[in-house]
Amino acid sequence: MENYRIRKLIIYYFLEDRSILMVEPKMVNSGTMQGAFLNRQMVLKPDGSDMPFEPTDFRVGLDIGICGRAIRIYDADEYTRHFFDVSIQDHALAVQIA
């Protein structure tokens, strides 16, 4: 029985309303459901603080929990890296995944 599966997601964070969209890129003939993992919506942190996720919660190398799933941020695009450089937040290089 399968205990876990590593799936690649693209995470979009919208600064204007702090909403998140998560999409799994479609792969031909993979046999698994693909497409929207999480439709665009504001998601509260699971720590009980009733605070929504912030951009700093999505730094490379961090693990986050959304919708009962553990998600590891392993890379970021150039725009996101520039955003963290400008806002003076540390971010790691790309992380190797299995």
Description:
The two termini are 19 Å apart. The protein has one helix spanning 78-86; strands at residues 10-14, 19-24, 35-42, 63-66, 69-72. By secondary structure, the chain is mainly β. The longest helix is centred in the last third of the chain and has 9 residues, at 78-86. Helices cover 9% and strands 28% of the residues. It is built from one helix and five strands, in the order βββββα. The chain has a three-stranded antiparallel β-sheet with strand order 1-2-3, with no helix packed on it. A two-stranded antiparallel ribbon has the order 4-5. The mean pLDDT is 85. A hairpin with a 2-residue loop joins strand 4 (63-66) and strand 5.
Quick structural overview:
The chain is mostly beta strands and 98 residues long. The chain contains one helix and five strands. The protein is globular.
